Design the sequence.
């Protein structure tokens, strides 16, 4: 597609439930990033992939957060045992290279109730 | 990590130029200056980036001070569609974007 596609657009999860958020980057983009945006705040870095290799996961807030990109294209962000503080918009971005302008998706809004 | 400072909000009239300032006094010699903007309910959108020289593209111009401690994003003719939060960013680790709070730009007709 022409842009970065994220699904679902909205997700409501009960506290303790596991969720999986999907990102389809622009075809051919080597670099892929995940960001978390809390209400009223700017996005915060979670993790970075170069092809299938996860080169940086320093921003993942806890070991309940896990990201993968097994074939170097589609990526999934998984959150286990969701908590209320996980409620946020999760944004995916991709790029040809790590230090060029990134294209962001519209995000997945996760609400934990 | 180098930090940036931006005004919380700015207001502009439609069809007038807008100058959005950013201070980054702790910038290092290899830090690129990136600008993104975020419209309501959308993901951030890349606007422009530069290192030392002024940069122009179809969306905006980036003016970088000679000492690189500040920069200004210039929208030459604001439209209502330019109303957004504008982020001035110095990527850390060379790639990770620290968005901060940005400047909320209001454009009035």
Sequence:
């Amino acid at each position: 597609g022409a842009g970065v596609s994220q699904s679902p657009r909205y997700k409501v999860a009960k506290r303790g439930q596991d969720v999986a958020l999907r990102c389809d980057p622009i075809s051919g983009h080597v670099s892929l990033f995940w960001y978390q945006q809390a209400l009223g705040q700017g996005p915060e870095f979670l993790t970075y992939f170069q092809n299938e290799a996860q080169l940086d996961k320093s921003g993942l807030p806890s070991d309940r957060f896990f990201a993968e990109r097994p074939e170097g294209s589609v990526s999934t962000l998984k959150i286990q045992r969701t908590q209320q503080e996980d409620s946020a918009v999760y944004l995916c971005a991709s790029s040809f290279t790590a230090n060029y302008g990134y294209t962001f998706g519209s995000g997945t809004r996760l609400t934990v109730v | 990590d180098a930090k940036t400072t931006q005004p919380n909000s700015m207001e502009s009239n439609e069809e007038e130029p807008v100058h959005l300032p950013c201070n980054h006094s702790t910038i290092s010699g290899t830090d690129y200056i990136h600008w993104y903007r975020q419209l309501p309910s959308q993901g951030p959108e890349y606007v422009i980036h530069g290192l030392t020289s002024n940069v122009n593209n179809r969306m905006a111009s980036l003016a970088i001070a000679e000492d690189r401690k500040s920069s200004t994003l210039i929208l030459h003719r604001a439209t209502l569609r330019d109303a957004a939060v504008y982020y001035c960013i110095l990527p850390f680790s060379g790639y990770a974007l620290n968005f901060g709070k940005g400047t909320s730009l209001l454009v009035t007709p």
Notes: The CA atoms of residues 1 and 26 of chain A lie 7 Å apart. The radius of gyration of chain A is 13 Å. Chain A touches chain B at residues 4, 31, 33, 35, 41-45, 48, 56, 59, 91, 93, 98-99, 101-107 (CB under 8 Å). The first strand of chain A starts at residue 5 and ends at 7.
